[in-house]
Structure to design on (96 residues):
C-alpha cells in the first residue's frame, strides 16, 4: 500500500477513469471494448437485438442496437446485465 493510500490521499483515479466509446458513449475504461458483436438477448422470447462489447475475448459491456426489434434498441431490464452471465461461474467458457 502506498503512503498516499494510507493517508487517504489516493483517489484511485486509474480505477475510475472514463473514456468515450463510439458505440456506448461515455463509459468506464474498464468496460471499453475492442470490438462489438451483434447478438440477440437470450432472456425472453421478444428477441431484442443488442451489441456486446468484447475485450480480450471476453464480454465486458453491452450497448443498444439502434435498429433492433423490441424496445427500440434498448434491452429490457434483464438484458441490461446479460453480458455478466456470459462468464458466470459454473457456465462453460464462451469466447467471442
Amino acid at each position: 500500500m502506498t503512503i498516499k493510500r494510507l493517508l487517504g490521499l489516493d483517489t484511485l483515479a486509474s480505477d475510475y477513469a472514463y473514456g468515450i466509446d463510439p458505440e456506448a458513449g461515455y463509459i468506464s475504461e474498464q468496460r471499453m471494448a475492442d470490438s462489438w458483436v451483434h447478438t440477440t438477448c437470450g432472456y425472453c422470447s421478444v428477441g431484442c437485438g443488442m451489441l456486446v462489447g468484447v475485450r480480450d475475448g471476453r464480454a465486458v459491456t453491452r450497448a443498444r442496437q439502434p435498429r433492433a426489434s423490441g424496445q427500440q434498441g434498448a434491452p429490457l431490464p434483464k438484458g441490461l446485465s446479460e453480458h455478466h452471465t456470459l462468464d458466470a461461474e459454473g457456465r462453460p467458457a464462451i469466447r467471442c
